[in-house]
Amino acid sequence: MEGPWPRAMAAWWWWMSLLLLGIAGCGGVLQVHGQVDNLGFISLDCGLPENAAGYVDSTTKLRFTSDAGFINAGTNHNMSSEYITPLMGKSWHNVRSFGGGAGARSCYTLGPLVAGLKHLVRAKFMYGNYDGLNKAPVFDLHVGVNYWTTVNISNANTPEIYEIIAVVPGDSAEVCLVNTGSGTPFISALDLRPLENGLYPMSNSTQGLVLLTRSNFGPTDGVILRYPDDPHDRFWIPQSKPTEWSEISTAKRVHNMEGSSFDVPSAVMQTAVTPINSSSPIQFTWDAEPSANVPDPGYICILHFSELQPLPVNALRQFYVTLNGQLWLGKGLTPQYLYTNAVFNGIPSHGSHQYNVSLNATTNSTVPPILNAIEIFSVLPTTGITTATQDVSAMAAIRGMYKVKKNWMGDPCMPKNFAWKGLGCSYTVSSPPIVTGLNLSSSGLSGNLSSSFAGLKGLQYLDLSRNNLTGSIPDTLSQLSSLTLIDLTDNQLNGSIPPGLVKRTQDGSLTLRYGNNPNLCSSSNYCDASSFIFGHHFLLKVIINLVVSTVLVILLLSVLILCIKMRRRGRTRNNIKRQNEASITTSHSHNNNGHRLLRVDNRQFTYSELEAITNGFQRVIGQGGFGKVYHGLLEDGTQVAVKLRSNSSDQGEQEFLAEAQTLAKIHHKNLVSLIGYCKNREYMALVYDYMSQGALDEHLKGKDNNPRTLTWRERLCIALESAKGLEYLHKGCNPPLIHRDVKTSNILLNAKLEAKIADFGLLKAFNSKGDTHVSTARVVGTLGYLDPEYHATYQLTNKSDVFSFGVVLLEIVTGQRHILKDPEPISIVQWVRQRFGCGNIEGIVDSRMCGGHDVNGVWKIADTALKCTAQNPLQRPTMTDVVAVLQECLELEVAHDDVNGGFYSVRSGGNMNCYGQYDTGSSTNVSQSSTMFELKHLGRVPIMSTDTAPAIR
Question: Where this protein primarily resides, as one coarse class (predicted)?
């Protein structure tokens, strides 16, 4: 019979669990100092007085400190003595509460951290009638600018634990308690644990994982396993069993394979449950928990298996895994002996009121299913926009220097209703919010004027009046071009007003108020004298600078005239043939890393030589608007491709020469290499590397000459290599280059399916490395790949290439053309966006891969592609970001070797290169593209049952 136990029984179970947890924490404490231990752990006892010494748990050896150094709001309280027991851990004895009324936000800042890494955050709450009101509150938790969960305390003696795994984008993680008008928020303890980025790959920079349950099956001692058994300090809650289940265990170590995505402790995997009746399934259910903030929550369920019994030769343990009747894997799962296997749904499950997972033995199985542990998460979007990074850093420095409290916690401008008091922020669709106004009048500020004010580049007004500021006025304020008002009245400033500010007040671009600063030089005799001296020194400097500048200009003009004369003499000596032919020779240049690019003198071919090389232009291997591409063979047997421009070509001479000169100058393993060229009055041709496997589009379209379908791993490798080539154009060249015609027909493959970007006829360079865009007289490119913003504004940026590459990624995932007939013509971007928004990931995947793909990896690639094709260029990632995601997805593909229908069976790890060969002895390092927040309260667990057993919480 399925169904939950009464809530009283559930509360009893969790209370006992936490008491057991408390036993591990009260065996004795040691006095310590410090806030972050050498593991990177932060363990805060919230409400512990600021001057109280920290303590070390004698069992886990983890250090707990006061939370006072991580927040500047709230008051400390002790829990009512009637709720404190000898077994309760010390961190539950105190709370910190936060007044302020409805809408108030109070934030912890946990750090310093390494930006872009994953962390586990755990918040603990026990009301314990600390305020004597006997009324447990309800309030919200936020992580950064994103809603996390609603804390709903059921009664005074019920502890609640919430946990989240997420990517932390900055150098600190912010956990905020928000008053929703249903009682005063409080907190008992707060933990932060760093995680390797290879763990929990379902979470990334756009979504976190909120914990619903993490359960350990089969232990008989009832102990919650955590650190040091789990080096990541996850809580593995023991689950008792129905009478129809039996417990099995082993004393032998259970191993995680290299590159494991979950790193489950051996102590957890050494126990399991299995039905006594071999024909009975293992089942568990959980209810969906929609809310106003998350009306349709998506869930990810991870099942952990390991065979603990050495089965006889003729015995087999094999079972199916289903979710709401849907088969996860196309074949039965057979756990490996003493090695961890995991099965999980890479795409969150939506749309059901209740979810049921069932493990059913196959017809070939001779022993019943087994289950060692489970983890269930709800997916939390973490895409909230944050204030511009530079402004966040500047405001944090200002807050720290002047010890401003007010509501200065969390993000300065976001969410809008929580913007810091005294701040004016500008909100636009195309860019992150920036600080435009700062009013700190009558705020009790003291000390010098902070140089960090100059970091607020969009600041328009600054009011620091009626404080006790001392020292001089920094001239850096004059460099804030948007600043129109500075009010410094009623302070204790001294010195003279900087000349930059004086100049701006004189030209009317700035209003400066500085009255009632007795020691500030303005119109006194002393200031007049100082101004006189300063003026003479300034005049002397001007004269010296003018003389030096004049001499330098004369020298530069002389050198320029000399160079022009020498160049003209050289041209006179050149013969007519040299006048008519372009010289394609690169000069020394530097890339972003400061490395010199070698001088390359490319071979110049005659037309007759091209005829011989191509055997009379016999074999056509490609064709485009420029003309045809022919297969050729050099004298030494090297195969080449000869791109011959036809007289009717759309590509003009200028574009042809641009491509030739570009190919001569740039050198990267993922860009085609120029071998030589031919140019005379009648013919123009390029000779470059022969790519025997042709263009990527031929493989995706499945032409007759390419009957074999590319595997998902091959597609990932091709995408990654192409992205690296494009990234080199954007970042490795000086000035940066924009391809302008990125498409699958311009990605060529060699015999090893290594990808190189080709066709540089439309390539465009920035005028300088600091430019953000290039204006063009006409829009060029290919319909379907063309950036709509570029098409509308004629403003070309490297994000135009990113858009085109996003279309390429969608073609790689779907196997569809960039423009489909569905039944009317539709862009692949719209086609995928419609299906992706409904969670139909399998509906977009190329069916010719026959399920041989990591659905989570496919999801990440499709998501990245849609970000690349965002309407607003500022919302698109850079190619460096795309390379990081592709690298991560390739490593995820290595970690999963059995994929079907969106669910994974993880058995082994290890690095595999792009061409299917394992690199043994090396660990999998996933790029820092994702940082996860994982957490939800541990008081909610799935209902476990067999067909006849009572439910267990």
Answer: membrane
